[in-house]
Amino acid sequence: MRSLIDLRTRIEAGRLTPRQAVVEAQAAIAERDGAIGAIVCSDPDPVVSVEGPLAGIAVGIKDIIDTAHLPTQMGSSFYAGWRPRADAAIVSRLKALGAVPLAKTATTAFAGLDPAPTVNPHDPAHTPGGSSSGTAAAVAAGMLPLALGTQTGGSVIRPAAFCGVAAIKPSFRLLPMVGVKTFSWALDTLGLFGASIPDIARALALIADRPEIDSSGEASRKPRIGLCLQGFAGEADADAAAALSRAARAAGAAGAIVTDLTLPEPFARAWQLHPLIQDFEARQALAWEYAMHRETLPPVLGAQLDRAQALTAAEYDDARRHAHRARRQLKDVFSEFDAILTYSTVGRAPRGLASTGDPRFNRLWTLMGVPCVNLPVPGEGLPLGVQVIARFGGDGQALAVAGMIEASLGRA
Amino acid sequence: MRSLIDLRTRIEAGRLTPRQAVVEAQAAIAERDGAIGAIVCSDPDPVVSVEGPLAGIAVGIKDIIDTAHLPTQMGSSFYAGWRPRADAAIVSRLKALGAVPLAKTATTAFAGLDPAPTVNPHDPAHTPGGSSSGTAAAVAAGMLPLALGTQTGGSVIRPAAFCGVAAIKPSFRLLPMVGVKTFSWALDTLGLFGASIPDIARALALIADRPEIDSSGEASRKPRIGLCLQGFAGEADADAAAALSRAARAAGAAGAIVTDLTLPEPFARAWQLHPLIQDFEARQALAWEYAMHRETLPPVLGAQLDRAQALTAAEYDDARRHAHRARRQLKDVFSEFDAILTYSTVGRAPRGLASTGDPRFNRLWTLMGVPCVNLPVPGEGLPLGVQVIARFGGDGQALAVAGMIEASLGRA
């Protein structure tokens, strides 16, 4: 993989120019993407800034995020060739930092559950996960050092885990959603994908303009970590359980105090209510697409929106109130723990391309709006990851704990 | 003015067809808008549904709200002729109810403070207010029975008061913002303008799919009303003070228990922090416009975004935390009061078209996310209005209390 920090170190030392770094990314795309299908389109003649803390960093932009200089096609035939007037706020921010929004990365249609035409770089017979399929695959295949995805259920953490890359779904609305196609406004969250935890910590601190996020070296020496199996969401595979145990042991070896955490009932209920909130909002957010193009929507999304027509405002209002209470209760949990360690996914990327996998271990945390990090756990075979979660606004804390475990796993 | 309920009554009784109702609106626009400048463009050959509870209702759509069938120009030269791909969610909802999104209404550039080319229908030498200038003027001039605006500071309540029309800025996110140009995502709120309180109550209940909102007849017989002068925001004109007193007496005459309410200090601080939250988000939301078209932004908005570049994430985070605490504290206020009665504006629409007026009595309530209704107070000269506010989610309550006062003022 291409490390953002490594590239920036070489650029700052004068051993690499920003343009050379971008040309390398273009060459990697040209060489590798034919077999992977991560890239929808890319800028053949990008403007490369020589200034800014992300100069020379080529970025992949999930194709539900507006770009004025490249089409934004939503993974959907009826947005083929669509050119927004303006860049999304996050794209403007990347440019202001000197980064190059080089390529649009493949998304499932409207960031739903119907697969994108992307394969897992580790084995093309397996899904890369979704909905940020191209984003995760492009980083995993070493095409791009940084890429943007979004998560409404588990669309950042799941593809990152399946493809073996570091990723963060930050606190809700830490990154601006202006110019990002909406699926569910209470849930949709921009996320960052990179080669390692320090890489995404650097990127998030710069993009969010909050230097304190990038303080991996200054983590509490003995963070209190709650090991949470999310029993309400079902069981994980043996492989995922083994990876979680390894990560917990690595955390302990690094000085963390790891204890079991069983979440009380309101969180199980909140987990159950996530799809109701999501689908009631998706029905409104995609109302034009549903009214005008129902017949060309892909099958899973079409059926999901069909079912969503029956949801009532009263059900939605009750679900939102419950989620609001659960968010407050989660603050109490985080008074006892600095971070939660849990599954990123049920297991490794499933075989086949008909499904993008199951977001069951991600949904609750998206609804709670708290920062979630996928930390790859090194090992044989297809990748596995674990999830590190902190309180709302504790993005730096989640990254610091994940970085501590990453370093400890590297030493093991 | 054209009453939505009156039109629907005649349509349901078979005395008017939906098409005739829409043709009447087209004729009113053709006759009156030349002198007012409320309409940016309109559909010459609209599809008129004969089904749905809003069939025959021609609606004005503020021109920062996406429409696939009409340009969406943001009040800005660099969006001239811009055609979005999809309708905003609220436009799809109107169509699903049978309404006709007939015309785009003039907005200040990006819903900022630079005036739109619209005059006050009651006196063309006076501002109609902003930023929903054309929306308020089109309803006031009897062109349209219903129109959409948005409020970030006071852009629904202020123009409604200046133009003498009923309007509601509902609870935050009761109406979907998908496809509405963002100024500040924590504040931007869609609102409805109509001829009377019952008209907007009917419209909001249908659009939000929450029938309980339209229960004007079932208001508490003795609502507890807090009369609030918002001293932290400065003083109102004598005319506005007299209108507020009249409204308070009318409420008392109708059976309400009206007592003085002085808000504690945290609300003054929240009021002060509103512009910081707004401008920090506007800097991100309009980053593309600022980076690419700074020289053609209108002067007030350009200068506002210039200043916003200096705001820090730490200031913003602190302000958001304070606003969050104030919202919780406001729940306690609403345990003692069913509604708050306060100023809509500092006074009548100022003379001249160089300013859209002052939102100082609206800002706090936008930040709190609570429903606000403008109730016109009948009298001589340019219009005056008062503001009725209820707890978050109490949109029906705010409308019921406003309707009670409206009826009592009519009897006086």
Describe this structure in words.
2 copies of one chain form a homodimer. With 412 residues, chain A is α/β, with parallel strands linked by helices. Chain A folds into 2 domains: 4-216, Amidase signature (AS) domain (Amidase signature (AS) enzymes, Alpha-Beta Complex); 218-266 and 320-411, Amidase signature (AS) domain (Amidase signature (AS) enzymes), CATH 3.90.1300.10. Helix content of chain A is 39%, strand content 14%. Chain A is built from 13 helices and 11 strands. An 11-stranded mixed beta sheet of chain A has the order 1-3-2-4-6-5-10-11-9-7-8, sandwiched between helices. In chain A, a hairpin with a 6-residue loop joins strand 10 and strand 11. Chain A is globular and about 55 Å long. The mean pLDDT of chain A is 97. The A-B interface holds A 68, 79, 82, 85-87, 89, 91-93, 95-96, 173, 176-179, 182, 185-186, 208-210, 281, 284-285, 287-289, 291-292, 312-314, 317, 393 and B 68, 79, 82, 85-87, 89, 91-93, 95-96, 173, 176-179, 182, 185-186, 208-210, 281, 284-285, 287-289, 291-292, 312-314, 317, 393. Chains A, B: InterPro entries: Amidase (IPR000120), Amidase_dom (IPR023631), AS_sf (IPR036928). Chains A, B: GO terms for molecular function: catalytic activity. Chains A, B: It comes from Methylobacterium haplocladii. Chains A, B: Belongs to the amidase family. Chains A, B: This is Amidase.
